[in-house]
Amino acid sequence: MIALLSDIHFCDTSAQIGNVATPAFATVLHEVYARARKIARSRDTPVRLDIVLLGDIFDLLRTERWFEDENGAAIPLADRPWASAAALGEGQANPGAVARARAIVDEAIVYNKDSLATLRGERRLPPAGVEVRRIFIPGNHDRLYLHDAALRERILGALGAVDGTGLSSEGIFLHRLQMPDYGLLARHGHEWDFWNFPSFRASARPSEYTDEEYLPTPIGDAITTELAVRLPYELRRRLLAEKAFAPEEAELIHDRMKRIEDVRPLMSAFHWSFYEIQRIGRGLDPVQSGALDRAFNDTLHTIATEFRQLEFYRAWVNSCRGPLHLGLATLLRILLLAMETLGDRLGGAAMQFDRLLASYDPRDAAREGARREALDAVGSTGTRLVVYGHTHAPAQVALGADEKTEDLYLNTGTYRPGVFRAEDGRSFVGWQRLAYTILHDQEETAGGCAPLVPRFVEWIGAAGLVPRVGDPRC
User: Fold this and answer.
1) Structure pTM?
2) What's the rounded Cα separation, in Å, for the pair 187 and 379?
3) Confidence check: pLDDT of 163 > 80
4) Phi-psi bin for 465: left (phi > 0), alpha (psi -120 to 50), beta?
């Protein structure tokens, strides 16, 4: 039996409102353990349960610790993963970035100690007859795991997990699972994301990618941290300098703007930032509202200007080839120029940019990628499953079938809240999401037309978040 979870994004909270509450993991484990125990009892034999953590379990990007440490000391650009053009193609992170990543993980482990203890099985022991193993596959937000032995030791220890090292005979590899007993081919799924996988090739099959192609820094890392994370960080600094705001008021606005990290799709985040600033401004007096607009405009100008000056960004633009790469690189360049020059007049332009980017949806790219998987490697008969994470959007998609096979794509979703562009194209709505996927192997589903258990179970949950419009505390 396999249970797959992804995109938990354990973080240090400097750039996040908070992490997933510990009871969520206790609930999931309770359900997973109950299923495994039922199989063990029905077969009167122990059951192996593999809990697969399918990438982006730790978040090494959504943190203000790339700008300042926990004591407020500034972190130079030289100590960030995208410090130079060399990061675009090299397979080795610079020492300063690795050291900073270790500190980020250490802080995240402290903040999430209860949740991690629950995931490790220390708060709720597996039932008798259920033998648990945890398997970690890195995603793009914990990509630096690949660059440092000490970082790997920290993450695996915190999760109580193993990675694919030495387990290829079981179909467990560093970046994928390939298990014929389950008809399963699973990976994080960022291989199909132009922004987050530097080696992305629209015509490629995932089996063509080597482990070395997962090492270079993608432009999405720099966008996430230098633009999305830095916007609330720089805004707070400017609000603290404005006499119109008390420190606690500036902190409340800072916390509210941290929701930029949960906007989906990510490139809608800049449209959302205008929407949210307007909502906050409606709850302020005219003096504070004017000060907020000035601080926001100056923040946009600063982060866009400095992003365009990054050697890494310029090298990335020069590396773009083909219609898709060049088209999206051009859209990003236009957005950055607009942020620099239009200020609070950018709201309408950001909405149009959002609509233009709708033609490139990572969810569509993932589904197309799933259709390109070489599923003959995991079986020639029965149900075959492709499982990804990454998009934060749980999914069940019928890929195709013939006389012998039925192929499905499943997405494991996320444990992060989401803030989504509404159907009106102008506003945004948020809610909390939870999801996990369970697979059973051929022996566990034995029983012909009346199997003992379903081939797969995907549980998707949601809880509404209802902020009070106009209240900076929400």
Assistant:
1) 0.93
2) 17
3) yes
4) beta
